[in-house]
Design goal:
66% of the residues lie in helices and 0% in strands. By secondary structure, it is mainly alpha-helical. The protein has two domains: 31 residues; 265 residues, MetI-like (MetI-like fold, Orthogonal Bundle), CATH 1.10.3720. The chain is elongated and about 75 Å long.
Length: 322
């Protein structure tokens, strides 16, 4: 039987040692030059997002401001040796900035620089704690509602609608007025109670869009439990929008906490916070503008940094925006 040459299979294209060596040299050259090619490490959304973030000056500016505020809140003694409500002289009230008091003095004759430094701790603590607890509630119940659906989904959705209809500042004001004598813990609890609705809606929607994916179905057919599917396969692919909203939410919570302090229903003396300082300075702004200027600048810079950081993270995690 005669075999035509056209019936023979195509010869395999096996690279010789020279071409393989050339390819290896090219890979090494790209890696050494700091290129994007990473040998042995698969590409991922988080790796690509970090690669995009570190090239943005907005990210580094916001991170630097927030790092400074975080150090100020955690280690105030690095900036001042004076504790809050210490070394106050009633004869030196409302002094302008200068001399031994770079930010001047407040209404009680206390060093205003020390008070501004110590005011960072409760403000930042409440903003971060409220966001973390609200995100935890949103992730757990949003995932359960989106994954199982049915009656559980309906119940979570209706409860979310009830709390979503409560105005943030007004609802917090009513609760705090009804329960006076509150501190940082009570403020955190009230703001958590009113601050989880947006994140849980986003988490639920992401889980619903991911639960029908092929890799989820494959894991289910292989016998993976619901808990493993949710935390191993669904959560990593649904958490990104929640992280973005949580980053933005820290700034919103800090702004809301300062608003409640300014209205007189938030933290009370002897606590020190930027919102309380703004409350005390509102009647003396014309004659003593430094009382309003310094806490307002730091508060605005902190909130703006969280908002800018959230925008940068959103752009980095969304491939359509690159």
């Amino acid at each position: 039987m005669k075999i035509d040459d056209a019936d023979l299979p195509e010869p395999l294209d096996v690279p010789d040692r020279g071409s393989a060596a050339a390819h290896g040299a090219a890979v090494a050259a790209v890696a050494e030059a700091g290129g994007d090619l990473a040998v042995g490490r698969p590409a991922s959304l988080w790796h690509d997002a970090w690669h995009d973030l570190r090239r943005r000056w907005v990210f580094w500016w916001a991170a630097a401001v927030l790092a400074l505020v975080a150090v100020m809140a955690a280690f105030p003694r690095l900036f001042t040796d004076i504790g809050k409500n210490e070394n106050c002289d009633p004869n030196l009230t409302r002094l302008p900035p200068g001399g031994d008091h770079p930010f001047g003095t407040d209404l009680s004759g206390c060093d205003y620089f020390a008070h501004v430094v110590h005011g960072a701790r409760p403000t930042l603590l409440i903003g971060v704690a409220v966001t973390l607890f609200a995100a935890l509630i949103a992730v757990v119940f949003g995932m359960l509602a989106g994954y199982y659906g049915g009656l559980l989904d309906t119940l979570v959705a209706r409860i979310t609608d009830v709390f979503f209809g409560l105005p943030f500042v007004l609802g917090a004001t009513v609760i705090l007025v009804a329960f006076p004598g509150h501190g940082v813990g009570a403020m955190t609890l009230v703001l958590v109670l009113l601050g989880w609705t947006t994140m849980i809606r986003i988490m639920r929607a992401q889980v619903i869009s991911v639960r029908g994916a092929d890799y989820v179905q494959a894991a289910r057919l292989l016998g993976a439990s619901d808990l493993r599917i949710m935390f191993r396969h669904i959560l990593p692919n649904a958490i990104a929008p929640v992280i973005v909203v949580a980053t933005l939410n820290v700034g919103n919570v800090i702004s809301g906490e300062a608003t409640l302090d300014f209205l007189g229903v938030g933290l009370q003396y002897p606590e020190v916070s930027w919102g309380l300082q703004l409350n005390q300075a509102q009647s003396y702004f014309v004659d003593h503008p430094h009382l309003l200027l310094f806490p307002a600048v730091l508060l605005s810079a902190t909130v703006l940094s969280f908002l800018m950081l959230g925008d940068a993270v959103r752009d980095a995690l969304d491939p359509k925006l690159r």
